[in-house]
Amino acid sequence: MTTQIDQSKAEAFAGRMIGNLNGAGLTFLTSVAYRTGIFETMAKIKPSTSREIAKAAGLNERYVRECLGGLVVGKVVEYDASTKKYSLPPEHGAFLTKEAGPDNLALFAQLIPLIGTVEDELVECFRKGGGVPYSSYPRFSEVMAETSAPLYDHLLVKKMIPLVPGLRERLEKGIDAADVGTGAGHAINVLAKAFPKSRIVGYDFSEEGIKRGSDEAKAWGLRNARFEAKDVAKLGQKEAFDLVTAFDAIHDQARPRVVLKGIYDALRPGETFLMMDEGASSLLEENADGVIAPLLYTFSTFHCMTVSLAYGGEGLGTCWGKQKAEELMAEAGFKDISVETVEGDIEHYYYVAWKR
């Protein structure tokens, strides 16, 4: 039996696929242009030739010219054929340079070529099971630290902390706080700097991340921030903290239920757990129109889910979703949970829970 094809539907899909392929190519070029300083250079100088841009950025002109060619036809950079000069519109620079803060999308472009390096290993996992371990990802700690830092710099103290009534005032007076899965520890240092009377510790099993956090704390002259390399599934703290945070960390865990129970146990009675995690639903159909849903499932397949599976974990994945998150938090003991959003952050949900 011959299957009838809706030609208009087929052509529309082919068009979307071509757009996807072009977008993928531009993502790679965007990553390179950001890492090599091309965008930062162009944002600071008048329209210039490729030679002038390369000289200002300290780069090889031939590579710069070819990269700019792709960015021009991809409508990221503008080009004047009469003068052979390139320019970065300020409206585009607002999403491609460090001054953009949490709006800097070029930061996230770096993640695509990074996770792409494990494709061969991932294909084998599709066939044989298992997962790709953290050790397979080059520059992962570095890139994640760079992508998350603007979020903490601009929103942590001003937007996230106020989600918990009275928390800012308590931090100003001085409390004991911990961050679970702290990564490179920048969030800890931002909090410690803003609230010098509070004592804040960061836990993560990545010694590279712990070193980054410790070095930054030392450079900032912080005496109230400390870091400890620890498997957060073995937190081992009993009623030790007034606040525990977990920023974009729980869905990666091999044993998320154990980690959440450890957090519950580590809190003093009546105290607060603040969790930031991906803004997805646990129901696939509810993610269909998500602005960055395809990216979230890509990151999950290429990193979050497979890393968890590599260590014999549940493999919750990036899109474990709000419903599953609330279920696991309740299972850990949290009965009073609210789910919030933060202006300026379209990527995450924020969960505020109390140990009652």
Task: Describe the secondary structure blueprint for this structure.
Layout: H1 7-35, H2 38-44, H3 50-57, H4 61-73, E1 78-80, E2 85-87, H5 90-93, H6 105-109, H7 111-116, H8 119-128, H9 140-160, H10 167-173, E3 176-180, H11 186-194, E4 199-204, H12 207-220, E5 225-229, E6 241-247, H13 256-266, E7 267-278, H14 293-310, H15 321-332, E8 336-342, E9 345-354
Parallel strand pairs: 3-4, 3-6, 4-5, 6-7
Antiparallel strand pairs: 1-2, 7-9, 8-9
Task: State the end-to-end distance.
Answer: 63 Å
Strand content: 15-25%
- Sketch the major β-sheet: 7 strands, mixed
Q: How many distinct domains?
A: 2
CATH topology of the largest domain: Rossmann fold
- The mean pLDDT is 96
Dominant shape: globular
The whole-angstrom Rg is: 22 Å
Strand pairing plus helix content: what structural class? alpha/beta
Helix content: 40-55%
Strand order in the largest sheet:
5-4-3-6-7-9-8
Q: How many helical elements? A: 15
- The overall strand count is 9
Q: What ranges have pLDDT less than 50 throughout 5 or more consecutive residues?
A: none
CATH class of the largest domain: Alpha Beta
